[in-house]
Amino acid sequence: MTNKNTPQIYDPASSPTSSSDNLIPVKEIHEAGEPASPSRRKALKKMGGVSVASLLGTAALMTNSDEAQANIEWAEHFQSNYRLMTEEEKAKAVARLEKRYSEEYGKKVTVDTTPAQEGVLFGYALNIQKCIGCRRCVKACVEENNQSRGDQEIEWIRVLKMEKGEFTPEKMNEGYPNDYGIQVGGNAYSASGVVLEGEHYYEPEKVPDEDAFYMPIACMQCEKPPCVKVCPVRTTYREPDGIVVVDYNWCIGCRMCVAACPYWARRFNWGKPNLPKEEMNPNTHYLGNRPRMKGVVEKCTWCVQRTRKGRYPACVEVCPVGARKFGNLLDPESEVRKILARKRVFRLKVEANTYPKFFYYVD
Amino acid sequence: MGLLRKTLFFITDYVTYVARGGAKFYGWLGFLGIFITIWFYGSYVQLTEGMIITGLTDQVSWGIFLANFVFLVGVAAGAVTVVFPAYVYKHKALHDVTVLGEMLAIAAVTMCGLFIISHMGRPDRLWHLIPYIGIFNWPSSMLTWDVLALSGYFVLNVLGGFYYLYKKYCGEPLNKKFYLPIIYIAIVWALSIHTITAFFMNTMPARPMWFHSMMPIRFISTAFAAGPALIIIVFLIIRRNTKLWIEDSAINLLSQIVVWCLGIALFLTFSEIVTELYHPTEHSHGLQYLMFGHNGLNNLVPWFWSSLFAMIAAFIMLLIPSWRKDQTKLQIACVMTFLGIWVEKGMGLMLPGSIPTPIGEFTQYSPTFLEIFNSLGNWAIGFAVLTILLKGAIGILLGDIKLEKQEASV
Questions:
Q1: This prediction's pTM
Q2: ipTM computed for the complex
């Protein structure tokens, strides 16, 4: 397998020979998670991700007032579904959002609108043999994607701890009915073999637990997503690069998608999200990690704000054992494609017929 | 007299008639007013704070708001048990009071709308559903089918009901070419609203407890038990408190409909229990949790068994003809049917559908006080609407308000 220490960046333009130009030094990636600093702004400029609209937003920052804030929120009420917006409307919406976020979080916030890249279909592979259940991915995800913190914490990734259980000889002759041969019995009612329901609230001193293995889950970015089909207003949909996104400004909060997801991947903002200023990641995408409002649904987007610019999702980057792999399914040379070709691969809940692009594998 | 003038007289007469009433009438509305006042406060808090004030979680994200909605769609559909025998089997006694069934349907659909708005995280964005200015994901999303079905049913009943009342008020014969198609379409439409409400839950493989084809017929059978059960109670109240006499034969037929539909509903419940529990798979966890609890988590267990007991007892009571014809026993059985099915739709179906979650997590849910008060408020508004609609309709049926009186005074 690849070297764990240097993050390999796939090429969004799907050229088989991955160019090292897209590679971002590890140092700068770490800076992205930290509060805004002069060097952070420099990094932003270097990445060239600042749109015209965001510059307008910065200009508007200078003349902030409560009234302006109210006007922005008022205008947001009437904006259209993201896909129905003209380029001009998109620029206006982005400028509005950047202004509001920048004021609210006291730093320069950018809202990116980079579309899906040509020839890219994202895929994800997770080595359950390697996962140690440390949940660094969960933490990195929350920090990167501006989820709500504290008592309303929202986590997109849940790591299921699967207990191994055991067979005991004491139960060999137990069961019912007892008289003329046992119909149900033995070890049927104890945790023998793998218990199907995982536990995701485990709080260990150390990981991994010897009597368990770990199965992280998040949005599977299905090719046939049931959540998208049930949405009455098409606020959630599948982007051309295979990521299922939510237009937070269009969601009516009916939670049809929450009920329809077989992987329990969707989260709802029951109250106003609690996102401390200093922890806010200002590098956002319209369909990804921009701050959410109360009453809307959110989910994993495979860090669309990063991956469309040739970076890895935060969870892939942070995984200490290299269990998480990400790349372009259309590129035969990408890591995920090689895993699909060479490893023993499975998907979760195939009976749901959702065709996830999230694969599990063992070496 | 011109149409516009007649309509104006109809409206003013109708409004002045329903606004005037005795101490009992005002007392009842005042009682409902208490709940509506609390509802204003509760809704304000929910709008400003968000759904966080409910007991809902990401694990159990559909709660009592949606449970009441589903139940009330059934009540709305149940109104057809008055219309159907009246127009298809020419039942004379029911024919005379068909309009009361339509008024009940209007009130029930109003409550459905209120519960949906309470359920929504962003009620301010309801307009996103409106075709052309928003996006209406039809035919993909079952929820959009439900929107169409319910708003269509609402329009049909308002049209049919008020057209009938207006003509009666004017003392003119009905235009059957206009009226009868509305009635027959409304009959079929009534079946569709509860069928689609079942579809909107049972088309999700992620929720194995709902994911079976028996749901729509079970919904229809419970609806045609709970709906007429409420109608019988309302009819008996009307008989006691107004001059309008509803024939015994009407109430008798409705009580027969209740007993047979209740019997079918129970049969379907038992079929489900046997099928799911003979060899319980992972998909039976919801039902097992509902019936027996799970490792000490047993919030729903008493609800399930009391609901089942109420339904069986009501069924047996109504099976005996002499009991069915005894007003006191009939009322008790109807209340038991209504409450039993209300529990069955809510605690018996809506909640265990989310427990366990698709990844096997058992999370209990109990509504908060605000959630309960907001639900009670929705019911209170619905009952206030029902009371006012019925009062006006009865006034016209009795001939208390009619155009002749206006003409005489002019």
A1: 0.89
A2: 0.93
